[in-house]
Amino acid sequence: MSRNIVEIDLSVPDVSLFAVHPEGISKLLGGRGLADWILYREMRGCTDPRSLGNVLVLSNGFLTGSIAPGSTRLHIGGKSPQTGFLGYANVGGTFGDDLQRSGLQGAVIKGVAPRLSLVYFREGGAVLLDGEPYRGLTTGEAEERIRKDFGEDIDCLVIGPAGESLVPFSVIRHGPHNTAARSGMGALMGAMNLKALIVRRGRGGRNRDAAAVAAVKEYVGHVKASTRYGRFASLGVPECAESSNEAGVLGIRNFNDQQDARAVRISGEKFSEYVTRLRGCYGCPVRCKADIEIGGGKYRGYRGARPEWETVSSLGFKCGLFDAEQVMRLSDLCNSLGIDTVSTGGVLAFGMDLYQRGIVTGEDSGGISLTWGNAPAMEEMIRQIASRTGFGSVLGMGVKRAAELFGRGSEDFAYHVKGIEISTTDPRSVKGAGLGYAVCSRGADFNNVYAIPEQRWTPERGLEQFGSAESVDRKTYRGKEDLVKRSTAVCAALDCLGLCKIPSLSLIGDFDLEKEADLVRAVAGMEVRGADLLEAGERVLHLERLLNISFGLTPADDQLPERFVETPVPSGPNRGLRADHAAAAVTAYYRVMGWTDQGVPGGEVLRSSGLDSLLEISWKV
Question: What is the total count of domains within the chain?
Answer without folding.
Answer: 3
